[in-house]
Amino acid sequence: NAGVTQTPKFQVLKTGQSMTLQCAQDMNHEYMSWYRQDPGMGLRLIHYSVGAGITDQGEVPNGYNVSRSTTEDFPLRLLSAAPSQTSVYFCASSSPGQGEAFFGQGTRLTVV
Amino acid sequence: AQSVTQLDSHVSVSEGTPVLLRCNYSSSYSPSLFWYVQHPNKGLQLLLKYTSAATLVKGINGFEAEFKKSETSFHLTKPSAHMSDAAEYFCVVRTGGFKTIFGAGTRLFVKA
């Protein structure tokens, strides 16, 4: 069972560079989301999707774009990286209702 | 509106003594509540979940939590701490639909 797969695991970017964090799930979940984790702040929602073709902003969306062309994939794009985007990023998927979310292993991003 | 408050940012216990990690929540609807654990440089692992069945929920690795509606609490306990329990723990609330809200986390230290 692959579950939720994120790539890459580690990335260093220079300020102003762009990149895409990949997320794929094989559980046929409708809901997918991206979080960032910073010390003492828990996980904060960046963007989410409730199905293919539908995305919306979360708590901290600025500087990030998403798209959802298939049920399986939900990439996160950093348009012009800034040091404030240094963080650990987690992708999650879940089914509608009140069950748990399943998380990828995270991407540790450093912007210098 | 939903919110989650983890009452302690750090908890330190000696090996073999009980663990108590405190969580209060706020929700307009009947919530689902979860505890996740994150070991250093690892992803998030589900410890246990409450989804309106029994109010005392047993999870993995000897952890359990009790849902108390009158106190809006969902505290995590373990009778005897082990060195391998040292990690960060997150209390999470979900009320159907999509939104999953994380607490800020409690870091558990276990002393030999």
Structural topology:
The complex is a heterodimer of chains A (112) and B (112).
Chain A: E1 4-7, E2 10-13, E3 19-25, E4 31-37, E5 43-51, E6 54-57, E7 64-66, E8 76-78, E9 87-94, E10 102-103, E11 107-111
Parallel strand pairs in A: 2-11
Antiparallel strand pairs in A: 1-3, 3-8, 4-5, 4-9, 5-6, 7-8, 9-10, 9-11
Chain B: E1 3-6, E2 10-14, E3 19-21, E4 23-26, E5 32-38, E6 44-50, E7 56-58, E8 64-68, E9 73-78, E10 87-94, E11 100-102, E12 106-111
Parallel strand pairs in B: 2-12
Antiparallel strand pairs in B: 1-4, 3-9, 5-6, 5-10, 7-8, 8-9, 10-11, 10-12
What does this structure look like?
The complex is a heterodimer of chains A (112) and B (112). The N and C termini of chain A lie far apart (36 Å). Chain A has strands at 4-7, 10-13, 19-25, 31-37, 43-51, 54-57, 64-66, 76-78, 87-94, 102-103, 107-111. By secondary structure, chain A is mainly beta. Chain A is globular and about 40 Å long. Helix content of chain A is 0%, strand content 50%. In chain B, the strands form 3 sheets. In chain B, strands 2, 5, 6, 10, 11 and 12 form a 6-stranded mixed sheet that branches. In chain B, a hairpin with a 5-residue loop joins strand 7 (56-58) and strand 8 (64-68). The mean pLDDT of chain B is 92. Chain B is an all-beta fold and 112 residues long. The radius of gyration of chain B is 13 Å and the shape is globular. Chain B has strands at residues 3-6, 10-14, 19-21, 23-26, 32-38, 44-50, 56-58, 64-68, 73-78, 87-94, 100-102, 106-111. The interface between A and B is medium-sized, with 24 and 25 residues.
State the helical fraction of chain A: under 10%
Could you name the ranges of chain B where pLDDT drops below 50 across 5 or more consecutive residues?
none
| Main sheet: strands, sense, barrel of chain B | 6 strands, mixed
The overall pLDDT of chain A, averaged over residues, is: 94
Q: Number of helical runs of chain A?
A: 0
The average pLDDT score of chain B comes to: 92
Structural class, from helix and strand content of chain B? mainly beta
Q: Output the radius of gyration of chain B.
A: 13 Å
How many beta strands in the DSSP annotation of chain B?
12
Instruction: Categorize the overall geometry of chain B.
Output: globular
Largest interface: A-B, 24 and 25 residues
Helix content, binned percent of chain B:
under 10%
* Shape summary of chain A: globular
Compressed to H and E, one letter per element, the order of chain A equals EEEEEEEEEEE
Helical stretch tally of chain B: 0
Overall number of strands of chain A:
11
Q: How is the main sheet of chain A built?
A: 7 strands, mixed
Task: Report strand % of chain A.
Answer: over 45%
